[in-house]
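Entry 12.
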Amino acid sequence: MDLHVPEGPVRSVKDFLLHILIVTIGILIAIGLEQLVEARHRAHLAHDAVEGFSRELTSDRGDLSETLSAIPKMREKITAEIANLSTPGPHRIDYPGVHFNVMSTSSWDTAMATQALAELTYDQAHRYAEAYDSLRVVAEVEREGLALWEDLRSFGDDAGGLAPEQRRALIERLRRYETFAVVLESAGQNALTKCNEALGEKPHA
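Predicted 3D structure (tokens):
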């Protein structure tokens, strides 16, 4: 912001006050213009943030729906394999699948870094925050499930080569994995609800 002192000598108090008034008006105009530009910039950031949230949450919701749709079959395979392992005799172990969809939060992280959330209403910001928090919970549950699945695979593929105590240990781990599936389903359903709310979609009756 450049300020220019009015040219010409100050001959009286009246001239002095006039010069002060001109400078003050110039400063106020400059500050007002800067604030206007800054307000438009913040509004633009908020608009971009909301568009980013919409794209990202829609994509995450699709990935989450895909994961949840696979859980019933996963639990069926766990139940069947526990029954097989409970019966003596060789068989090829049919391990349940593993699902690990990375939930993107880059739009939220960017909005936090640019302070774009300050331009949203409290209700808007709260809905988006709840959606992203719920997605992070799902991601954490998935990471824990991946570790459990890797532990399952350490028993190999042939049940005939397992000692009785190994069979019992594998059954115990399969039950843990089933618990993981239940937790993932619950966390996933909650995340879907929060994503729908953030995207302005009402849950189906």
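Annotation: Residues 33 and 70 are 56 Å apart (CA to CA). The two ends are 58 Å apart (CA to CA).
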